[in-house]
Amino acid sequence: MRARHVAGAVAVAAMAVLGTSACSAGAQAGTHAGSQAGPPSPTAPSASASARDRLRGGLLTQAQLPQGFHLLTAEVNSTTTAAPHGPASTVPIASMPCSELGVESFMTHHAPPLEDVAVGLEQVPEQEQADDEGWFGQEALDRYAPGRAAEVMAAVRGAAQRCPSYANALAGGTTTQETVSVTAADVPADDSLVLRIASALPGDPEPYVSERAFVREGDVILMVQKIVAQKPRAGVEAVLPAAVAAYRAATAH
Asked: N or C: which end of the chain has fewer CB within 10 A?
């Protein structure tokens, strides 16, 4: 029970990070665009606003999600977009601490996109399975400057290979042992990978698993992230094909 409580606290904190990130994006959306070109005319939307709308239109909707999944729009605001969310780190992904491969949003910190949008996701637990806690996370679309998305994908893959295992200290003095694996995602794309981190808590034989799938489509990186789950029924790849299909359908015109 103690291990489950610790992992639950980690998951809640992680979603708080995601929600805060999106809220800060919303706070910046007006000032970021306005500082570049002033407020758009009601009859002539700015090019950047149009680009943001197209990016936002590529996010999953409830109707496009597989059965058993729901959107969590209250947790991650899907109607705002701006980047970066805060001061960018001077440390690149290639040399960031291994611990930042976990639930924190290392992408917007170490490789800020030009624009991003996100929406929260949840897999609802099955009532008849007492040990099924479901999982929650997010889908995000990050747009980079031409050529930059390919560099970011290579950096993420390199960081995962550099950090096959590491210890991670949590609040309260608990230390987890993290095991990292990286594989290609099972979807056709310009590039893809699935990053999995299994967290072993003291006294708990079952690890808690977080996952993040990355799919590059030109200059956009689509991510589906599962924060943490123990004995999950499905991982991010249960949602990934629908996410890729939704993005491609929205950008086909």
From this structure: C
